[in-house]
Amino acid sequence: MIETSRLLAMLSAHAHEHGDLLCHWLPERLITYRRFWSRIERASARLQGEWGIKQGQTIAYVGASHPDIIVLYAALLRIGAAFMPLEGVSTQAAMSFMQQADVSHVVLDEDVTIDARSTHYLPQLLADWCHFEPEVNEENPLEKSLLLPSSSGVIDHLSLSELCVKLSPRASSQWVIGPIFDIETLTSIVLPSLRDLQTLHFSAIEKTASVDLSNQQE
């Protein structure tokens, strides 16, 4: 088993060795581990080739914890950029955090409006194929590529290695309720589930979804 701190290598291996297992599902779309990795590749191409995101930049997300922000995070890791998830925060707080972190691009849920430079909408990230060939960054688990704002206004800069020190030996649940990029949720549910090839469930999405689970086309 590839160590979880090498998230990209682990997810790529899962896609090739256990691609038909269900990673999670969205309304009318089943996301197998193979499809999950394919979405990361597609997002990497769009981020770099169409949105112009460069290695070393910081990208923020402002919205209500859509599952595709896990794809966004992995794709940003892949091209060497940092991620600051702003889940469920006020516009004022989001603007303050983004200013502190010198955010270059902002990714928004489609119902969110914010006055910031270089804004993009999350549904556009995976809307169709981008045929750009991205320059992939060498994976570095020590890179502090996750910026997590706290209620006190402080931004914690974390690496995958630091997150994995706190990792549960097994997932406490497969249900994600509330923010995805909360340290407790990441280390007790999200990362252990991905490590152990479990199916993640997102309550805000799945309670309103109607999906034919027998349809597993990629």
SSE blueprint:
Blueprint: H1 7-17, E1 22-26, E2 29-32, H2 33-49, E3 58-63, H3 68-79, E4 82-87, H4 91-101, E5 105-108, E6 119-121, H5 122-125, E7 146-149, E8 155-158, H6 160-165, E9 175-176, H7 183-195, E10 201-202, H8 203-206
Parallel strand pairs: 3-4, 3-5, 5-6, 9-10
Antiparallel strand pairs: 1-2, 7-8
Helix pairs in contact: 1-2, 2-3
Task: Note the main attributes of this structure.
single chain, 218 residues, alpha/beta, Rossmann fold, four-stranded parallel beta sheet, two-stranded antiparallel sheet, 8 helices, 18% strand, disordered C terminus
Protein architecture, described:
- The protein is of the alpha/beta class.
- It has a single domain, classed as Rossmann fold.
- Helices cover 36% and strands 18% of the residues.
- The protein has a four-stranded parallel β-sheet, sandwiched between helices.
- Strand 9, helix 7 (183-195) and strand 10 form a beta-alpha-beta unit.
- Helix 2 crosses helix 3 (68-79).
Strand order of the largest sheet: 4-3-5-6
Number of beta-strand segments: 10
The structural class is: alpha/beta
- The radius of gyration computed from the alpha-carbon positions, rounded to a whole number of angstroms, is 16 Å
